[in-house]
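Sample intake sheet
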Amino acid sequence: MVAPLALIFMTQWMLLITQLCVGWHCTDCINGSAIENFSCVIYNISFMNCTWQAGKDAPGDTQYFLYWQNSRYDDVKECELYIKDENGRNTGCRFQNVRIETEKAYFLVNGSSKDSLIQFYDVYIQLYKIEKLMPPENITVNCDEIKSNCIIQWQRPQISHSNKDKCFKYKIDIKYKDNPEGKTIYISIQEGGNNHTFQRYNTGKKYLLQMRAAGSVCFVSPAWGEWSAPVEFGNEELTSSVWILLVVAVGTLLVAIVTVLFCKRTGCWKAAFPQVPEPKNSFCGLPHNTELTESKIQAITSDKEEITLVADILK
């Protein structure tokens, strides 16, 4: 197994060296035909974009091709996903699953044209230096209402080649929520760690906090990374409109209570809401002599019986 792998490795290197030698000894190449402004950036842990511009004196039909090698132990690979301009010319490349090594990576961009020889461009790049760091993760703020201290906690940004907190430094930026585009009221840079104490001098305000990270030691990019999403914390003081509504509500309630107590004491309810008279009882004038009442009922009953008897005779 060793011999075939060594043969493949040597073949790839011979191909790369041949390309370099052709470009190096290319006396008939057009000056100014090599690419310009070559740059690469690594983002989202393992994605990489490389871009360039065509040489200012390159023929219109010039096409460019990128080859790269992550380390001496890796194979030489051509770009698998080119970025093209409106004319179909390759002006960049997208990479996935990029692994950051301690060694420098090698990039080679050569060109081809029907009628001309094109100069090549090559460069060595330390990949960790071109990484755009993600923001710190899981940022939380817990405030002590008595001491007015707020404890900020976070986790380091994810990178593919280090898991040590000491490799990072952090920038903390705090503004008032009601003026997010205004002046920063607090800024701090902390080496390592994953927590920080912020002293609130105005406990009646809400704040917005953002953080970003950069490499401090280790093989981590020293450039500041992306800002985190704003994190809101603190107590928001009542606005003037809210105060007005509260005053109106309390005033209305007090007026209602005073009115009820005053009317209850002075009897103004009777004047405002007079009582409706009850209907008279039709039996109120009847005598209370029980014997007389019973005799009248018997007389009425006997009259009815006589009438009934006469009716039966007529039948």
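Comment: Residues 147 and 222 are 36 Å apart (CA to CA). Residues 1-11, 13-24, 305-315 have pLDDT under 50 and may be disordered.
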